[in-house]
Amino acid sequence: MSSYNEVIATAVLAIEALGVLIIVAGIVFAAARLALRRAGDPFRQLRQDLGRGILLGLEVLIAADIIRTVVTPTLEGAMVLGFIVLIRIFLSMALQVEIEGKWPWQKRGS
Question: Which of 22, 26, 48, 105 could form a disulfide with 57 if both were Cys (CB 3.0 to 4.6 A apart)?
Answer without folding.
Answer: 22
